[in-house]
């Protein structure tokens, strides 16, 4: 069995942060690069793309609410038109930098509060997917398994990758536990590895409130800003192999 592993990268404050990201890259199959909304700069985007190409990774855009002060993790009260304009600017910025390396973007994955809002707000999800269908019809869309983005993408015949998270807790509804709640992020490496196998196989795991959950995914996310991200990534490939799984986009 094969499973796609993605990681949110390019979210540091300077080029030095790209060194940590580069240590994760040999153990994943695709990366989502911040493109100026919550983090990222042209220099960091360029270095991230360069490192991703060295590791043969699929490269995608990781846009967000235009809110660097809160790292894109708070819902922003702006009009949908303003939001869509910002998303286009963010994705296009990364797209143009990718062109300089003679490569193309493969996918798009929303970040933070926008990711969560779009998964519960059908009107917002429809607006975003309509924008992507018009401006970036060839980009795959990555989003939460069984959320609003998947439903709209399916209706519009867009290629959609159902995503699971190895280092985040889930509510009984299948939504992610808000980061404002304690222990919403898994830091224990063994727990993250066990979650990865469960998601890859579509087998049961336990929700934040102790209820069994079970669903299938196409790609699994490891957050690059998790303090244990490098250690988790380094152990992940061998742990998956031990359970008959390999990493492949």
UniProtKB/TrEMBL annotation:
InterPro entries in UniProt: Glyco_hydro/deAcase_b/a-brl (IPR011330), LamB/YcsF/PxpA-like (IPR005501)
Molecular functions per Gene Ontology: 5-oxoprolinase (ATP-hydrolyzing) activity
Superkingdom field: Bacteria
Annotated keywords: Hydrolase
EC number: 3.5.2.9
Pfam families, sorted: LamB_YcsF
PANTHER family per the UniProt record, alphabetical: 5-OXOPROLINASE SUBUNIT A, UNCHARACTERIZED PROTEIN YBGL-RELATED
Name of the molecule in the record: 5-oxoprolinase subunit PxpA
Species annotation: Microbulbifer echini
Gene transcribed to yield this protein: pxpA
């Amino acid at each position: 069995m094969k499973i796609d592993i993605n990681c949110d990268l390019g979210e540091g404050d300077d080029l030095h942060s790209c060194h940590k990201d580069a240590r994760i890259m040999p153990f994943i199959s695709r990366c989502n690069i911040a493109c100026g909304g919550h983090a990222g700069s042209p220099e960091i985007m360029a270095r991230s793309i360069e490192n991703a190409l060295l590791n043969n990774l699929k490269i995608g855009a990781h846009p967000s609410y235009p809110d660097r002060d809160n790292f894109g993790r708070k819902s922003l009260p702006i009009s949908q038109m303003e939001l869509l304009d910002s998303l286009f600017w963010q994705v296009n910025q990364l797209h143009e930098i990718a062109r300089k390396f003679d490569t193309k973007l493969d996918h798009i994955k929303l970040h933070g509060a926008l990711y969560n809002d779009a998964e519960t707000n059908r009107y917002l999800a429809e607006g975003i997917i309509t924008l992507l269908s018009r401006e970036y019809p060839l980009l795959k869309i990555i989003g939460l398994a069984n959320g609003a983005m998947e439903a709209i993408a399916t209706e519009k015949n867009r290629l959609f990758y159902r995503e699971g998270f190895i280092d985040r807790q889930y509510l009984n509804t299948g939504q992610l536990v808000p980061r404002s709640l304690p222990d919403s992020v898994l830091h224990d490496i063994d727990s993250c590895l066990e979650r990865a196998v469960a998601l890859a196989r579509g087998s049961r795991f336990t929700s934040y409130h102790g209820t069994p959950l079970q669903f299938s995914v196409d790609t699994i996310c490891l957050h690059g800003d998790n303090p244990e991200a490098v250690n988790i990534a380094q152990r992940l490939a061998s742990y998956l192999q031990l359970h008959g799984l390999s990493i492949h986009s």
